[in-house]
Amino acid sequence: MPSLPDMTTPDVMALARDAAASQPHDPHLQDVDLKPAFFDWLCRMGDNTAILGHRISEWCGHGPVLEEDIALANTALDLIGHTQMWLGLAAEVEDAGRTADDLAFLRDAMKYRNVQLVELPNRDMAHTLMREFLFDAWHVEMLTALLQSGSPRVAEIAAKALKEVGYHVERSSDLVVRLGDGTDESHARMQDALDRLWPYAGELFLGDGVDAAVAKAGIAPAPGDLRAAWERTVDAVLDEATLRKPEGRFDVHRGGKQGRHTEHLGFILAEMQFLQRAYPGASW
Amino acid sequence: MYAQMVKSEGMKTLDEMSPEERAFQERIDRGEKIEPKEWMPDGYRKTLVRQIGQHAHSEIVGQLPEGNWITRAPTLERKAILLAKVQDEAGHGLYLYSAAETLGVSRDELTGKLLSGKMKYSSIFNYPTLTWADMGAVGWLVDGAAIMNQVPLQRTSYGPYSRAMIRICKEESFHQRQGYAIMMKMARGTPEQKEMAQDALNRFWYPALMMFGPSDKDSVHSAQSMAWKIKMNTNDELRQKFVDETVPQAEYLGLTVPDETLRWNDARGHYDFAQPDWDEFFEVLKGNGPCNRERLEARREAWERGAWFRDGLNAYADKAAARRASASIAAE
Ligand SMILES: [Fe+2]
Ligand SMILES: [Fe+2]
Ligand SMILES: [Fe+2]
């Protein structure tokens, strides 16, 4: 769990300036040609964690057992923490006076860059956990690869996030196994969730011009490079869970990374952005 | 406070007590802690189960009014802080159910009584959270009132309860400060934000005063609980302390406490203040508060919809144990 900022600190801005001054120098931040792609890529990272964190936080107080309430809130909290880091860096790269909060709360769906998988409704714990698992298994590979990023700032964020995501994937894999191999009902629900979510998983591995530019700059791996490791994890866990891997294509639903979303995202944003939209310019 | 109107068994004098009861009372008077395996009067055990159980239920139901705003928190940082807070409350529920378990009552049994309406949770969580300022008011006033009661309970006679309170109090004081920080932002923000802040104070002031329960200065139940040190102060003492501490905080925010009779009484060294509407309080306890039905329904639904999940985990655990057993037989 990330440590929370001390609310009693009188001058938060001064602290932020000190922290910024101690950041490692990163030439990528000044690379004008790279800027649009780098910005987009950072938004993809931050929007994935923002929207998944939002979905998971919807469970707050409604979990099936107290330990799950705590674990779900904790996971959401981690993901919101990652969002602050990714969108914070995106705002720095953009250098247009926007903040992480501006990016999260004042962009409309068209400008959001998360994969469609993370915006789908929670439905039940089976869908919630299966989605988390499919995402976590990608997330952990992505962050591990980013430890080697040519951008020190990206590598730094990845290192911080990986500590938590290592735990996320452990937890979601474990629950997929237990529920898959639990009762007939829990098995059927997990299989149903897998079948429904499978056609959305592949978007995580589809590359476009943004990915190519960022890969060429040595910042991030090409998305397709993560697929083999992801499949190994998924195959092993599904096998242990006695679940059947769907036969159909896993990359049917795509476009989130380019700003083409499902109908669900608009409602998430309507809720999430309500206060910032209703009271422009207010500080909270 | 999170336990209201907890009934305890009637009070005996030292002369009327059995030798065991007298020795027990003398240990408490000396400030010793009572631990789970030790002898205790039946009434002590029953009263503690009611009180700790009600407190645990309050933490759990208390997730709902604040959970209501997590998806609408106005900044990433506020969202993170609120999530951390609600997560803490669930953790408090967990410590408290564990403390109750040391008295021989399981978490599932207590949960069953909450869901069937046999056990209560604090009246405060039956009030709605209508604007973002309510996240400030709840932290400031509700967690603030809870702290008034829980700080002295760190010295309660029952060991596991006392230790749970020590852990909980550390987090509650953080909750109160973050609530106050939200109020500060709102009260010094735009006119609309200030209006929301004042409205939140208007709505939560009297329900917060009700959290301490009606006056119990003549109650035998309270006298017994105080002799056993499972209640450390009267309800009126705690309410007065809360008012005395909170009024200057409201003034600092530039907000008005919704009580025209409120004034400093030099002779008493305390604020004089108006009592909340106790008829309203009893109506809320009876189930007629603004959100009683929703709160209990939300918890029931969570429990019922989670049945397959809990069953699935149990079935897996049984299978895994059977596999381990047959593996060890095969190895022999
Ligand atoms: Fe609490
Ligand atoms: Fe609380
Ligand atoms: Fe609290």
Automatic annotation (TrEMBL), chain A:
InterPro entries: Aromatic_CoA_ox/epox, Ferritin-like, Ferritin-like_SF, PaaA_PaaC, PaaC. One of its GO terms (cellular component) is cytosol. Gene3D superfamilies: 1.20.1260.10. GO terms for biological process: phenylacetate catabolic process. This is Phenylacetate-CoA oxygenase, PaaI subunit. It comes from the Bacteria.
TrEMBL record, chain B:
Pfam families: PaaA_PaaC. It comes from the Bacteria. GO terms for biological process: phenylacetate catabolic process. InterPro entries: Aromatic_CoA_ox/epox (IPR052703), Ferritin-like (IPR012347), Ferritin-like_SF (IPR009078), PaaA (IPR011881), PaaA_PaaC (IPR007814). Residues 1-22 are annotated as: Disordered. Residues 9-22 have a biased composition (Basic and acidic residues). GO terms for molecular function: phenylacetyl-CoA 1,2-epoxidase activity. GO terms for cellular component: cytosol. NCBIfam families: PA_CoA_Oxy1. PANTHER family: 1,2-PHENYLACETYL-COA EPOXIDASE, SUBUNIT A, PHENYLACETIC ACID DEGRADATION PROTEIN PAA. This is Phenylacetate-CoA oxygenase, PaaG subunit. It comes from Oceaniovalibus guishaninsula JLT2003.
